[in-house]
Every structure is written in structure tokens, then in C-alpha cells.
């Protein structure tokens, strides 16, 4: 269990059962669990091939419950005379089934939605039917966006239009005048508090969004002149996603609460404070400020927000605001698990090499002697010798002095030296820098039925770490150390960074493949941002997805969203399947006329071609 750290990142949803399979407890501690391996097999019987994205709607519900419970507890603990009304940022995962669930699960908490763009606002407007829930309108806006948001109030929605650019102030003033609607306006501030990690540049004077302090003053003035200062009721900030250190959150809230108080003093009718996203996910389970983790929990987060606002408002005799957070990652990550299979493996040669033969080149003898002499005292020095001899063998080969078979022998001996040295370094407490890559160089390559670009784009684009592990055979010692190579013919289509305790490791411990038996891996906590940012590199399309809900006795499949077929994917790049088939048919006819193909072969080819077009873009194993 410790190997994959599931007890850290998996809590309370994922664990390992006595059969050595991953178990999912979608309701957390509230009970009920599923054997993930058995679930995958059952789904395969329903013709749902891998790769397969499984969404557990109960996990989504549990995340919403947890977040609201943490704020409720903080509000009670600090006697906060106000409320919390969270919103879910649609950008994090816009899939319809997920959003419909989310709105439904959020009803008891008046949980709302945040739109970061005009198309997202279209979704939010249509889906959000919870009385009293907030509709936060962020992102760049044009007049149409602003008008639509304002008119939404006539439908019973509570839209809050957040001014992100100074130009939007006049747009709002004009729209308000024309429609005769007094909107609720907010300001997104560019805080000086610096975020941390991958998204640290979301804040500061040069951040992409938000108003600087002088612009905030200008906006207040313009609204006052238009007699709309009373509409300014919200202050918003967002210091980046996945904030790993709690002190950064505290600093931001402190700065924001000062601005909030000042806005009230300037005459705005302040009622809401929106702390944006940033609530982190513990991908490696280390509970540290490492970027793939966070050194605080949801309760600490809620406590700090509530306590700071209570104090800041009390100091200035101001009513406290309704608190809003836009947590996306913390809500959506856990609910989806991506299951994929291993198609095959490749290894560097291993095992004891043959000693040199009579008449073989001296370089082979030197490598053999190096191989034999390696021990715990000299392994670092002899690693250099072995590398040098191998280079020399290649130079000699290029000069025509060494034959191909001899080069093969030299390379084989070099790998044997590396294998021996690696075995020694694994026992050492300290591994010299130059030998650190040895593990990666000697790793097996496991070929996975997946496109990293489609299903885990952040792995490729920003070195994001997701927990990855086999979902079965966990009662067996894994004997291989591997990196994962995907189906794309792109050398970036690989995963060679895996979670470790507060660190990254370059290989994943895996099991030997057994002939005729599938080997399933799971990628966890990847429900946020990955699906929509995935791309069609090499024309691998959307994967199959299913929504699973726990029932008192077992589970039910709520929705099946079939992955793209080849026809669909080819359609995205303007190919028509019928035209393609017709073209192949013509080529077959010509080949028949020229007697280059038999009628049986041409029929087989056409049949395969037609069938493939209606099939999944991934390989069937
Ligand atoms: N709010 C805004 C304005 C954002 O830009 C983002 C994403 O970065 C979020 C909320 C969601 O952040 P997270 O997923 O870290 O909760």
C-alpha cells in the first residue's frame, strides 16, 4: 500500500481490499464500497472498452457536502454573523451530466456557479435553478454578455457581474441605464500577495485579470458619478489554483479584507467577499507545501477565511460579508478515475552477459573486466569507465574497426554494468547526482492504451503529478520499475514523473505482464481541467465515460457517454467517412483491374476500413 501512497491521497475514497484490488468508497466514511477491478470487468462486459473514465457522482456530492460542512463549522466556531455560499467554477469540468449533478447536490447549500467566459455563462444561466444560489459572472465581457447577465435577474437568478477590466465599468453603466436594471457588481482585485506554484502568476500587478488599486479607485469614481455605487457589493480575488501553502492564503485574505473595508468606507454597499479558487488537492498525500500537495486541510482553509473577515469587519464596525469560494479542483478532482490497460513492455537487456571470446575486440574485454570488478566501493568510478568504453565502441564502429555483432556485445556488456551498478545504488542512502538518472535509463517501458495529450494534458504541459497505480494484483510484490509510454507517436507522450513522498520519482513499480491476462492501471484525482484541455493529437479522441452511482445493494450506471469514433474524430478535421470509403473502393477496383489484389483481399480491406471508422480510436486489447 505504501508503495503507491494510496493511504495519503486516497482518503477517504480509495483504498486496497483483501483481494489486492483498489476499492472505491464513493460516500467516504458514510459507507458503501465497490471493487474497482470488478467494476471495470463488469463495464467491459457491457462493451465499454478501455481507456475508460469512471465518474462517481457520490464522490462529487461528498465533496460539496464536505466543503459546506467545513464552512458551516467555521461559521459556528467563530460566531460569524453571515453565511457561506459557494460556487463551482464551470471551467474546471463543464460536462453536462456532471454539472447537472452538481447543481442538484448543491441545492441544500444554495451552491451556485461561476462562469469564466461567455459560453460558460450560457451553461450556468440555463442550468442553475437553485433559489438564492449565486451566479458569478467572471471573464472578459462584451455588451451582450453584460446585458444577458443583467436580464438573468428577471428570471429569478442572482447574477453578480465581476468587473475584471476597467472598460467593463462603462459597459455596465450603459447597459444598466438602458435596461433599467440595477445589477449587483463586483470588482476583481489584483492583489499584491504572490501566489505559489504553477499558477502563482495569477496575481500581482501584471496578472492577466483584475483591477489594480488605482483602477479600483477609478471604477468607484465612475460608478459614483453614474449614481450606481450602491450596486458595487462584491470584492473578488483569485491568487491561482492549487495553493500549496496556507500562509499564502492567509496573506491574500488579509489583504483582500483590508480592500473590502476600504470599499465600504468609500461608499460601496459591500455584501460579498469572493475568495476565488486555489483550495488545493493533495495529489501525493504528503500534506506538505510541495506543489503536488498542500499543508492545510479544508477546515483550516474555511477557518482562516471566516476568522479573518470576522475580525476585519468587527474592527471597523461593518456587517460581515456573505463568503463565496470558487473551488473547482477541490470539488471535481476526486470524482473521476481513468482506467487504462497495458499493451506490452520493452526492456533493456538484463541478466549475466557472456564472457569475451577468443579474437574479440579489446574493448569487449575491457567492458567485461569492468563488469566483473564493480563493487560497493568503486561503482561510481566504474560507471564512468563503462560509459567511456561504450562510447569508444561506437566510435570504433563508426570508423569501421568494430563489426556490428561486436558492437552488440559491447552494448550488452554496458547494460550489464549499469544493471549491477543500479542494484548497488538502490541499497545506498545517498545516490551521487550523476547516477540519479540510472533508474530511469534502466526502466522498463510499459506501453499504455491511452493518449496523455487527450486524457492527462497537464502531465505533458506542466509536469502535473497524478497518482497512478495498478488497480489489481496489489497483493503481489511488483518486480518491475517502469515509465509509461502512450499511443501517440510523440516522444512527449510519456509519463516518467510519479508521486513520491514530498518528491517526484522517475519510475513506477509495476508487475510483470501475465500472458493472456489484462493489466489495468488507474490514474486518480484527474477530474479537474483534464477533460476539456485534452486534445486530439494523433487523432485519439474522447475516451468512453460512465457515471456510476452507489445503490443500497450495489451500483447503477447512470449515464454512458461513448468516446469518439474514428468517423467523429475525422469529422473534426473535415473528412467525411463516406468519401473516404468511396476513395478506398475506387483504389481497390483499380488494383483489381491491374491484378495487384484479389477480390477476397479487396473485400477484407474494405470491410476493415469501414469497421474501423465506426470504432473507438484506441486499441482493442
Ligand atoms: N476562479 C477563477 C477566477 C479561476 O481562474 C479559477 C481557476 O484557476 C478558479 C476559480 C478555480 O480554481 P481551483 O480549481 O483552484 O479551485
TrEMBL record:
Sites of N6-(pyridoxal phosphate)lysine modification: 91
Give the source's domain of life in one word. Answer: Bacteria
Q: Which residues does substrate bind?
A: 273-283
**Pfam families, alphabetized:** Arg_decarb_HB, Arg_decarbox_C, Orn_Arg_deC_N
For this protein, the record's InterPro entries field holds: Ala_racemase/Decarboxylase_C, Arg_decarb_HB, Arg_decarbox_C, Arg_decrbxlase, De-COase2_CS, De-COase2_N, De-COase2_pyr-phos_BS, Orn/DAP/Arg_de-COase
Residue intervals of the Arginine decarboxylase helical bundle domain: 358-439
- Entry's CDD domains? PLPDE_III_ADC (cd06830)
Print the keywords alphabetically: Decarboxylase, Lyase, Magnesium, Metal-binding, Polyamine biosynthesis, Pyridoxal phosphate, Spermidine biosynthesis
Q: In which pathway does it act?
A: Amine and polyamine biosynthesis; agmatine biosynthesis; agmatine from L-arginine: step 1/1
User: Does the record carry Magnesium as a key word?
Assistant: yes
Instruction: Cite the GO molecular-function annotations of the record.
Output: arginine decarboxylase activity
State its cofactor. Answer: pyridoxal 5'-phosphate; Mg(2+)
What does the similarity note say? Belongs to the Orn/Lys/Arg decarboxylase class-II family. SpeA subfamily.
What does this protein's UniProt record list under function?
Catalyzes the biosynthesis of agmatine from arginine.
Protein known as: Biosynthetic arginine decarboxylase
Which organism's genome codes for this protein? Funiculus sociatus GB2-A5
Taxonomic lineage of this organism? Answer: Bacteria, Bacillati, Cyanobacteriota, Cyanophyceae, Coleofasciculales
Amino acid at each position: 500500500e505504501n508503495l503507491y501512497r494510496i493511504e495519503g491521497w486516497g482518503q477517504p475514497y480509495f483504498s486496497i481490499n483483501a483481494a489486492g484490488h483498489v476499492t472505491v468508497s464513493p460516500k467516504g466514511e458514510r459507507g458503501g464500497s465497490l471493487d474497482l477491478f470488478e467494476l471495470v470487468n463488469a463495464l467491459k462486459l457491457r462493451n465499454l472498452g478501455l481507456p475508460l473514465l469512471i465518474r462517481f457522482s457520490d464522490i462529487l456530492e461528498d465533496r460539496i457536502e464536505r466543503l459546506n460542512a467545513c464552512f458551516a463549522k467555521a461559521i459556528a466556531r467563530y460566531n460569524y454573523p453571515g453565511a457561506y455560499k459557494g460556487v463551482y467554477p464551470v471551467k474546471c469540468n463543464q460536462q453536462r451530466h456532471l454539472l447537472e449533478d452538481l447543481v442538484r447536490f448543491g441545492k441544500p447549500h444554495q451552491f451556485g456557479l461561476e462562469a469564466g467566459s461567455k459560453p460558460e455563462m450560457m451553461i450556468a444561466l440555463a442550468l442553475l435553478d437553485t433559489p438564492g444560489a449565486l451566479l458569478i459572472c467572471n471573464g472578459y465581457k462584451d455588451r451582450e454578455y453584460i446585458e444577458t447577465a443583467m436580464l438573468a435577474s428577471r428570471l429569478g437568478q442572482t447574477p453578480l457581474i465581476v468587473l475584471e477590466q476597467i472598460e467593463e465599468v462603462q459597459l455596465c453603466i450603459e447597459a444598466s441605464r438602458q435596461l433599467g436594471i440595477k445589477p449587483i457588481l463586483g470588482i476583481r482585485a489584483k492583489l499584491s500577495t504572490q501566489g505559489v506554484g504553477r499558477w502563482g502568476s495569477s496575481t500581482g500587478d501584471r496578472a492577466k485579470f483584475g483591477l489594480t488599486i488605482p483602477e479600483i479607485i477609478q471604477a468607484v469614481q465612475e460608478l459614483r458619478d453614474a449614481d450606481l455605487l450602491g450596486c458595487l457589493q462584491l470584492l473578488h480575488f483569485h491568487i491561482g489554483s492549487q495553493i500549496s501553502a496556507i500562509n499564502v492564503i492567509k496573506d491574500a485574505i488579509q489583504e483582500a479584507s483590508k480592500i473590502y473595508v476600504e470599499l465600504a468606507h468609500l461608499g460601496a454597499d459591500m455584501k460579498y467577499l469572493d475568495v476565488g479558487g486555489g483550495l488545493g488537492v493533495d495529489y501525493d498525500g504528503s500534506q506538505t507545501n510541495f506543489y503536488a500537495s498542500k499543508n492545510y486541510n479544508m477546515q483550516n482553509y474555511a477557518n482562516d477565511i471566516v476568522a479573518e473577515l470576522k475580525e476585519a469587519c468587527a474592527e471597523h464596525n461593518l456587517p460581515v460579508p456573505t463568503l463565496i469560494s470558487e473551488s473547482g479542483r477541490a470539488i471535481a478532482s476526486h470524482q473521476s478515475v481513468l482506467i487504462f490497460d497495458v499493451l506490452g513492455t520493452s526492456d533493456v537487456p538484463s541478466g549475466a552477459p557472456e564472457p569475451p571470446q577468443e579474437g574479440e575486440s579489446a574493448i569487449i574485454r575491457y567492458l567485461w573486466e569492468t563488469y566483473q570488478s564493480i563493487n560497493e566501493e568503486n561503482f561510481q568510478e566504474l560507471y564512468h569507465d563503462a560509459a567511456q568504453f561504450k562510447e569508444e565502441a561506437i566510435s570504433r564502429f563508426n570508423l569501421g574497426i568494430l563489426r556490428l555483432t561486436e558492437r552488440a556485445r559491447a552494448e550488452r556488456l554496458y547494460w550489464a554494468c549499469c544493471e549491477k551498478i543500479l542494484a548497488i545504488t538502490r541499497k545506498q542512502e545517498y545516490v551521487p547526482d550523476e547516477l540519479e538518472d540510472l533508474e530511469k535509463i534502466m526502466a522498463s517501458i510499459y506501453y499504455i492504451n491511452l493518449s496523455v495529450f487527450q486524457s492527462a494534458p497537464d502531465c505533458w504541459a506542466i509536469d502535473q503529478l497524478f497518482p497512478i497505480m495498478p488497480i489489481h494484483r496489489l497483493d503481489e510484490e511488483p518486480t518491475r520499475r517502469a515509465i509509461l509510454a502512450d499511443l501517440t507517436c510523440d516522444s512527449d507522450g510519456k509519463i516518467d514523473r510519479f508521486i513520491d513522498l514530498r518528491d517526484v520519482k522517475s519510475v513506477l513499480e509495476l508487475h510483470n505482464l501475465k500472458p493472456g491476462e489484462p493489466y489495468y492501471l488507474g490514474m486518480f484525482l484527474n477530474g479537474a481541467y483534464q477533460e476539456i484541455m485534452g486534445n486530439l493529437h494523433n487523432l485519439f479522441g474522447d475516451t468512453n465515460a460512465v457515471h456510476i452511482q452507489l445503490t443500497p445493494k450495489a451500483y447503477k450506471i447512470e449515464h454512458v457517454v461513448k468516446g469518439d469514433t474514428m468517423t467523429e474524430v475525422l469529422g473534426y478535421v473535415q473528412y467525411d467517412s463516406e468519401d473516404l470509403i468511396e476513395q478506398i473502393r475506387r483504389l481497390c477496383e483499380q488494383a483489381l483491374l491491374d491484378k495487384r489484389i484479389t477480390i477476397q483481399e479487396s473485400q477484407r480491406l474494405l470491410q476493415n476500413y469501414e469497421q474501423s471508422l465506426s470504432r473507438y480510436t484506441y486499441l482493442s486489447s
